[in-house]
Amino acid sequence: MQADTVLKDAWSRIPSLGTAETAFERFTGKRMERILATVVAIGSAMLGTQAMFAAIGSMSTGTSAVRVVLLIVVYVSLIAMLVACVIGRGVRSASGTFAVVYLVALAIWPLTVDAGHERAVNQPWIFFLVNVGVVAAMLAFPVRIQMVWAVGVPLVYGYVRLVEGEFAGSFWTLTAFDVSFTLILGIVIVSLGWMFRSVAAGVDDARGRAVASYAGAAAAAAAEEERVAMAALMHDSVLAALIAAERADTDRARDLAVAMAREALTRLANTEAAVAQEGSDEPVGTAQIVIELRRALSERGADAIVEERGGSGLIPGRAARALVLAARQAVGNAVTHAHGRGLHLIVEGHGDDGLTVTVMDTGGGFDMDAIGEDRLGIRASIIARMAGVAGTATIDSDGEGTTVVLGWMRE
To answer: How sure is the predictor about 280, in pLDDT bands with cuts at 50, 70 and 90?
Structure first.
């Protein structure tokens, strides 16, 4: 299947063992950025410490106030970058700030020497941070600007180094070696960062296609299953209504055929609603069931109390829908046969364990045994409907009224 192919492609791009994500996100890309930031923080901290020792050593022979200011500015931005890399927040902005600050400080370095001070022969502290400036650009900028930094920073370093040595012949060979080394290392760093990010993006894209493919397949399968179930239901309902209409030779038979046709049309209309209104298993809370029952009372024009008791909880949507539909039928019976006298609804939640709906009226009651076999209002719409979702329905009726108790409990 296409979904299997996409999933295998996703796994083939994952560089290490892991678990598939339940919901698609740029998980691998985020993880890779975190790894790169951590590695950069460790390496930059080591080079920064080395440069700090070099700076302290150079101060013993005297240094200009401007270079002290440069030292402070560069290290403040470097420490900010290290902190951002460690905590994983503001990495791009902090790294970009250091990359720019360091490049500017390196470029103006020769201009900050005291007029009468002898130029340094050994490498000053700022030269130890050349590759830190490149990795900072790798974290902060797009690939093209990263390459500019990878090439530009070593070249600026080489020029500044030659200026420090007053372009003496002995400096050219050593500077050429340093520039070539830092240039190659900077390009390798940028290339590795691009490669790792590309692999991570490929894994995320493949995972996204796999999740989308399986989600589409699951949705199609669910829709097909629902279509088949509803087709069978419509076939039975419509066929039964047609047979009843054909055989209707009395007023009662015709009324029954009309009722059956109305029920079939109602079910057909329900299939047009979202999730067919017959059964998403998305959890439904007690408050939503109370709202549905109040809406049913409003549609019937009944004046009744809906009392909510117990703790709120969630039950499967299919069970909640069956409870509401069965309760609507009970309300309809109470309005039709008892004229809504004393109509009272109680919704009692049992947390996540289940729910009970009680519909009571003070009408004249009825005898269950006297109800004809062809009357489906109670047997099909209440008892059978609750049985279909592993629920219960009990009906007690006498001369003082009728009580219908509908329940669903989690096994």
So the answer is: low
- 401-409: strand order across its sheet: 305-311, 344-350, 354-361, 401-409, 392-398
Q: Identify the pLDDT of residue 372.
A: 61
* In the block, residue with structure tokens 């493919």: 213
CA 11-16-22 angle, 5° bins: 55
Q: What b/e sequence results for 12-49 when a residue is b if at least 16 CB atoms lie within 10 Å of its CB, and e otherwise?
A: ebbeeeeeeeeeeebbbbeebbeebbeebbeebbebbe
Cβ pair 150, 193 in contact under 8 A: no
Q: How are beta strands 344-350 and 305-311 bridged, if at all?
A: parallel
What is the per-residue pLDDT for 13? 46
Beta bridge partners of 153: none
Top-confidence residue, 26 or 353: 353
Is the pLDDT at 3 greater than 60? The verdict is no
Q: Single out the residue of 97, 96, 93, 102 nearest to residue 127, CA to CA.
A: 102
Domains of the chain: 2-210 (no CATH), 280-409 (3.30.565.10)
Q: What is the mean pLDDT of the segment spanning 157-177?
A: 80
Task: Confirm if 229 and 40 have CB atoms less than 8 A apart.
Answer: no
Contact by Cβ (8 Å): 325, 381: yes
- Answer for the pair 329, 377: CB distance below 8 angstroms, yes or no: yes
Q: Where residue 275 falls among pLDDT bands split at 50, 70, 90?
A: very low
Backbone φ and ψ of 107, nearest 5°: -65, -35
Structure tokens at 170: 């002995």
DSSP 312-353: --EE-HHHHHHHHHHHHHHHHHHHHHSTTTT-EEEEEEETBS
Length of the chain: 411
Write the DSSP symbol of residue 382.
Answer: I
Q: Which residue has the tokens 């070696």?
A: 177
Q: Are 253 and 247 in contact (CB under 8 A)?
A: yes
Cα distance between residue 135 and residue 189, in whole Å? 7
E strand or H helix at 358? strand 354-361
Provide the residue type at 292 as one letter: E
Residue 345 backbone phi and psi in degrees, to 5: -115, 135
Rounded distance, CA 51 to CA 59, Å? 12
Nearest partner of 342 among 330, 366, 359, judged by Cα: 359
Please provide residue 357's backbone torsions phi and psi, each rounded to the nearest 5 degrees. -120, 125
CA of residue 31 relative to chain centroid, distance: 16
For tokens 């600050």, the residue is 101
